Amino acid sequence: MPGRIAVSNRAAATWQRATLTEIRRETPHAATFRFAVPEWAGHLPGQHLMLRLRAPDGYAAQRHYSIASPPDDAGHVELTLDHVDGGEVSGWFHTVAKPGDEVELRGPLSGFFAWPGDRPALLIGAGSGVVPLMSMVRHHRARNLTVPLRLLVSARGPEELIYASEYGAETTAVFTRSAPTGVSVGRMAATHVERLLADPPDGGPGGGPDGGWEAYVCGSNGFAEHASRLLVDAGQPVDRIRIERFG
């Protein structure tokens, strides 16, 4: 099994100034924030960073956020943030932040959830859990990679589906509360996962040269447990499931 990917300790430990250059609304509760980071050393799809805000009185708040942009977006980093009720950092971004504002970033961090594009990837996310997975999808497209990649994403309804305009044939969307006409409503189920695993990469048992799909699951604690259980029940090896959870 491919192991943990090495991360530069120097880059991970160094705070950098980042300038907010653009804000894009994704859903009523989520937006993408684009930063210019001239000294950014690059990252791998799936990695995250630490963000720090400083108040005039010296108070500082720090949060971990997944990186949404692909590695080829040199000198820039994009983060997609939910507006969390009572969240001091997400609240500032959604109600105060404007282009030209500066923050501090440190990273990239962690190699466990990273996908360098060298193995078939089965991506499963819910809500804002799709953010690091979209970095992988964008990387796959930017490099015109031929290695198989599939995304299964869950949202409450079409209006809450982050990056809705970007999804293509690689994506299956599941809606838990409301759905477009002709699409059923319900929780992600065994049939969704089994359908994706039924066609192994390279068309044969076991799949590609490294033994099949590498599964990446990202979402809330409850969703991560549910999705990983569906994967195991469908035959995905436990040691080939990587989980990033929040909440």
Layout: helices, strands, pairs:
Elements lengths: L8 H5 L1 E13 L2 E7 L11 E7 L5 E7 L9 E7 L5 H8 L6 E8 L11 E6 L4 H12 L6 E7 L15 E5 L14 H8 L16 E7 H13 L7 E6 L1
Structure description:
The protein is of the alpha/beta class and 247 residues long. The chain is built from five helices and eleven strands, in the order H-E-E-E-E-E-H-E-E-H-E-E-H-E-H-E. It has helices at 9-13, 88-95, 131-142, 190-197, 221-233, and strands spanning 15-27, 30-36, 48-54, 60-66, 76-82, 102-109, 121-126, 149-155, 171-175, 214-220, 241-246. It has a six-stranded antiparallel beta sheet with strand order 4-3-6-1-2-5. A five-stranded parallel beta sheet has the order 9-8-7-10-11, sandwiched between helices. Mean pLDDT is 92; it is low at 203-209.
Describe the structure using short key phrases.
247 residues, alpha/beta, six-stranded antiparallel β-sheet, five-stranded parallel β-sheet, 32% strand
Q: Report strand order across the widest sheet.
A: 4-3-6-1-2-5
Q: Shape, please?
A: globular
* Uncertain stretches: 203-209
As a percent range, the share of helical residues equals 10-25%
* Average residue-wise pLDDT: 92
* Count of individual beta strands: 11
- The value of Rg in angstroms is 18 Å
Q: How many helical stretches?
A: 5
Portion of residues in beta strands equals: 25-35%
Distance from N terminus to C terminus (CA atoms, Å) equals 28 Å
Main pleated-sheet profile: 6 strands, antiparallel
Order of helices and strands: HEEEEEHEEHEEHEHE
Summing up helix and strand content along with how strands pair, one would put the structural category as: alpha/beta
